[in-house]
Amino acid sequence: MITPKWQFSTKLTTTGFLLVSAIGLNACQSTAPSAPVIQRANSTYETTGIGKTKVAAQQQALDSAKKTCGMRQAIVVKDDLKYNGVFDERTGRMVDQVGSIAGAVLGTGKPNLSRDDDYEYEISFRCQ
């Protein structure tokens, strides 16, 4: 059976539309998790970023603030950084360095004592 030209065109158009829609929706998804944002009085917001490193925690919190403010600029009013590692921060670095040296000498690799929530960066911000 021969398919009329207009039916083939309709099927092609529908398939193309579905493909473009799927790609468009997929492109809107963010790969980086964002921290929840809480609105407080006086047009201020609060969020907390967590990460393996201080920089990662700060970046997560600031990304959430920028996303909340959209086209406006996020102005940090107050911030606080907490370290929640297995050891205190200085001892953790020392153990990490000793582990790296021992791993290189013994050929076993470096032990990983850091966790994804070692650092918490809490910020209060407003959009301006």
- Envelope shape: flat
Low-confidence stretches: 16-31
Structural class: alpha+beta
End-to-end separation in angstroms reads 65 Å
**Fraction of helical residues:** 40-55%
In angstroms, what is the radius of gyration? 24 Å
Order of helices and strands: HEEHEHE
Number of strands: 4
How would you describe what is shown here?
With 128 residues, this protein is α+β, with helices and mostly antiparallel strands. It has a domain at 32-87 and 115-127. The protein contains three helices and four strands, in the order αββαβαβ. It has helices at residues 5-28, 54-69, 89-106, and strands spanning 37-39, 45-51, 74-83, 119-127. It has a four-stranded antiparallel beta sheet, with helices on one face. The protein is flat.
Secondary structure elements and pairings:
Layout: H1 5-28, E1 37-39, E2 45-51, H2 54-69, E3 74-83, H3 89-106, E4 119-127
Antiparallel strand pairs: 1-2, 2-4, 3-4
How would you describe this structure in keywords?
128 residues, alpha+beta, flat
